[in-house]
Amino acid sequence: MFKKAQIYSIVSVLLLYLFFINKVVANSPATPDPTILPFPKILINEVGFKNTEHDWIELLAVESGSIQGMKIYDDGAFLEIETNIQVEAGDYILIYFKADDDLIGYDGELLIIQDTKSGLTGTTEQVVIKSPNDTIVDMVCWRNSSPTTGEISEFEAFANDGGWAYSNIESCINSDQVLKTDSISRKDNNDSNKPEDWVIINIPTPGSENEPEKVTLPEIELPQLIFNYPEEAINEECEIIAEQEKNICEKNIIINEIYPNPKGKDGGQEWIELKNTGNENCSLEGWKIDDEEGGSKSYTLLYIHEINSGGFILLPSWQTKLNLNNSSDSIRLFDKKESLVDEVDYEKTPEAESYSNSGSGFEWSKTITPLTENIIEFEEEPEEKDNDEKETKIVIPNGDLSTQIKINEIFPNPEGTDKGNEWIEIVNESDETVNLGNWMLDTGESTKTKYIFPNNALEKHKHLLISDEELGFSLKNTNGKVRLLDFNEDLIEELEYDKSESGFSYAKIQIADSDEFKFEWTEELTPGEENPKLYKYEGEIIEINDKEAYVSLKIDTGENIAIKYIDDGTSMYGQIFKKGAIISATTNDENILNDFEIISEPALIEIEKSNYNYLIYLLLLATLGGGGYFLIKKYNLIKFVNT
Questions:
Q1: What number of CA atoms fall less than 13 Å from residue 273's CA on the CB side?
Q2: Which of 120, 150, 218, 506 lies at a 20 to 30 A Cα distance from 296?
Q3: Which of 463, 446, 452 is nearest to 398 (CA)?
Q4: What are the C-alpha distances in Å from 619 to residues 7, 11, 590, 624, 626?
């Protein structure tokens, strides 16, 4: 016989079981580990490295095998496949970045690898695949017009290890030509480890077959051919045209500007500029340049060195390995047949001046004009003074007027000593090059010291960094101001700040995929580069996790976004955020909360309804428990024994 205490326990457990029981079906039989197949041939097939949402890499398996042990590098290894995953020839593998978690899985037949890495560098970088025995399997690289010394070293380490056919970083794909909506795509499976294998396309195809015909090209209407020539005549005509083009280029390509003695350390900062003075585009592939007979080893130009009509090419010393002497030297340019095309001699180089073609000869100029028309400064000699002293004045010609030159970032309070470490960065937000002759920077209307720009040519979407040593004034740490004025002294932009944080810059931060921006203090300094961006999301809060400090939003696309926040003990996000509320949140590229706005609170009726449902469940449970006990006792279904 059962005791009363035992009966109560049995009935309670039974009711709870009936109320909360869930049927779970497991249908995943264990699979024995297959034999690991040899490592297959894998190609990097397509890369999106300027995507504002998620950068990505698409790999193609050319052969079947196991990718266990495969490693992916940019400047260092960031991904290694540790599990035995077998792929078939023709399979695609899609790696995408800025994921919430590191995961590997299949979407249908497509192998997906999620990586929490923020993405790929959009200026100068490489992607490299290595096999389990650390042999380079495939590589692709891209670079902008001014790669850093570190980026060059990283590229050369992989290129010299057999990853790329050329050892010069300028052979990589020009990232300045790749838009945010573009990708770089392999033309076919014939892998020569050369840039000729790749093309820029404006309709990316991640996870599927490449469509290189969708390359971004200008639309040209070709004339219809109405004459028929014998094949011999066609060949002869082509040879004549080729010879004419060669003669045109020999006549029109000149050495236009030389910069042999930069301020400070010369290494890697010297350059030579070529100009096309004609009306035809010229390819300089196979041409050579050197610094006099018996000097540095000559540099051979590549297929990428094509000068448009009236255009320029800049050949920096880090690329050519030509050491330009400061005492005297001779720069020589040769065509494919090694015939001398142009030669310029110079002597006694002044520091930080270029030797520029004035049209009637070469002159030293303090106005440095890489990739733009030369500007030759001239000196005025006023009337002689009584003491026979002469005064010279350098006259800077006015530049261009523009409303698209902006202050982009300032660094007023470096850690440690401020002097010599402060700087101001401006940016050209227009689609045209702007000359800045006689533009000004200062710290307010009452300041007497102004920085006057030489006639710098600031290219479209490029940045210009001016140190405090160049400025001639320092930036205040509190209650500071920076003004930018054009050569008419019209105010273009004024930036004010209350208190600067040590080691932080005050940067113009843009909301990705929008025209919104705001200035914020940031520890991520980007001198001379694009500032970090913020990302804006709007959606309903579906989860709040105080323990792991994140809130999850369901946005319009149906995707769930996990936004992390820094819990400093005073933010009280757990009380501010409420499930069901609609908020607008901005985050950095690591999805850490930067700012938010509550658009609407959760409806009160939903909360009351939810609480009401819980009450109904409790009453139902109590009723079932009490009713069951009454029936058992009334009909003596179970006999009780008193103890």
A1: 21
A2: 150
A3: 452
A4: 21, 16, 47, 9, 10
Specify the pLDDT at position 617. Answer: 63
| Domains located in the chain, CATH noted | 42-214 (2.60.40.1260), 243-380+389-394 (2.60.40.1260), 405-522 (2.60.40), 535-600 (2.40.50.140)
Q: Are strands 354-357 and 306-307 parallel, antiparallel or unpaired?
A: unpaired
242: tokens are 């080729």
**Cα 368 to Cα 319: distance, rounded to the nearest angstrom:** 19
Q: How many helices (H) and strands (E) does the chain have?
A: 7, 43
Q: How many CB atoms lie within 10 A of CB 172?
A: 24
Task: Return the number of other C-beta atoms located less than 10 Å from residue 554's C-beta.
Answer: 16
pLDDT of the residue at 423? 94
Side-chain half-sphere exposure of 493, counting CA atoms within 13 A: 16
Q: Identify the CA nearest to 401 among candidates 364, 438, 427.
A: 438
DSSP string, 72-99: EESSSEEEE--S--EE-TT-EEEEE-S-
| Residue found by looking up tokens 């995961």 in the block | 103
β-pair type (253-259, 271-276): antiparallel
In one letter, which amino acid is 76?
Answer: G
What does the block give as tokens for 335?
């065509």
pLDDT on residue 241: 44
Amino acid code (one letter) for 525: L
Predicted local confidence at residue 590, as pLDDT: 79
CB count within 10 Å of CB 562 equals 14
Residue 156 has phi, psi (to 5 degrees) of -60, -35
Q: Evaluate whether 445 touches 481 at the Cβ level (below 8 Å).
A: no
CA dist., res. 172 & res. 156, Å (int)? 11
Residue 603 tokens read as 């409806």
Phi-psi region of 359 (alpha: psi -120 to 50; beta: other; left: phi over 0): left
Q: Are 323 and 302 in contact (CB under 8 A)?
A: no
Predicted confidence at residue 244, as pLDDT, reads: 47
User: 469, 450 in Cβ contact below 8 A?
Assistant: no
Q: Which of 229, 228, 217, 329 is nearest to 272 (CA)?
A: 329
**pLDDT for res 32:** 39
Angle at 20 between CA 17 and CA 24, to 5 degrees: 95
H-helix or E-strand spanning residue 462: none
The secondary element (H helix, E strand) that includes residue 200 is: strand 198-201
Handedness of CA 161, 166, 167, 168 (dihedral sign): negative
pLDDT tens per residue, range 436-480: 989 999 998 887 789 999 877 888 889 999 999 889 899 999 999
d(C-alpha 371, C-alpha 315), whole Å = 10
To the question of pTM greater than 0.85 for the whole model, the response is no
Calpha distance 248→352 (Å, rounded) = 34
Structure tokens at 424: 């101001």
Q: How far is Cα 402 from Cα 570, in angstroms, rounded to an integer? A: 46
Residue with tokens 């980007």: 526
Residues of the chain falling short of pLDDT 50: 2, 5, 13, 16-34, 214-238, 240-242, 244-246, 380-381, 385, 390, 604-612, 643
Whether residue 319 contacts residue 289, with contact meaning beta carbons closer than 8 Å, is answered with: no
